[in-house]
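Narrative of activities, Objective 1.

The group set out to show that a structural description can be obtained from nothing but a protein's sequence at a throughput compatible with the screening campaign. Below is one input-output pair from the validation batch, recorded exactly as produced.
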Amino acid sequence: MLKLFPDIEPFVRHSIDVASPHVLYVEECGNAKGLPVLMVHGGPGAGCEPYHRRFFDPEIYRIILFDQRGCGRSKPHAELQGNTTQALVEDIEVIRKHLGIDRWVLFGGSWGSTLSLVYAETHPEQVLGLVLRGIFLCREHEINWFYQQGASALLPDYWQSFIKPIPEQERGDLLQAYYKRLMGNDELTRMSAAKAWSMWEARAATLLCRSEVIEHFSNPHTALSLARIESHYFVNHSFLEDDQILRNITALRNIPGVIIQGRYDVVCPMQSAWDLHQAWPEAEYHVIPDAGHAASEPGIIDALVRATEKFGRLLA
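Output recorded for this entry:
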């Protein structure tokens, strides 16, 4: 079973101004003249982590990480103004042009798979390949599964902690109830809601509890941006039309792709990966039998590294 590559530090960091008030954090690692790959993190609002650099052979790849609007080291933190899917797609184009890249590989999981797919359908001529994990198509029933009814039946103990900040009379629409609190001016209420929201996702993300996942999501900085930005996107239908990704799938016909899905993914159940596979059969499809949602699970790591090594051989 393949493991992550050794720890690596960026050789350069960038601050890139996009539409006001947003300034994006971007870093580059590995081979400055190598095959460009963009790591597209999840959430929306989770930000990048150091281990995200380690899915790629640093001798082959020019590894580019960025924190999307409002999260991680991008500024201002947890900012919702101008924070839409379309804006993030154009941010990726700004980064590509700023770095002087013609075409690149996109590597994204969860919301990162969503954004990578939307970008590739919008700018297919710029995409060399797609490595996608924990597929999230942002359809209404996917949101309802995780934030209203579905995952709650699999994790009833964790679910109780999630609904605790919301009065019983408001639990018929938990997304709106959380959104109201996360957008409010009461800092204690906002932070309490953010922590409960973020911890629900962290506890559901892995088949077996992983302390590093809990630690990342429980960090107040991460929790606030994750909860505010996710709820902002989800109450706005992720700024996508119904079934937009699958309806536009023909744009991907000539792009090599790999779809990797944990069979026991509670956050983004396997149905979405299966639907994507049916619509885009040209892409490789790998189900990991002993994994949930997180990129840090051993079977997921193995499959992702195998995919980047394959693309390295084919495209470098």
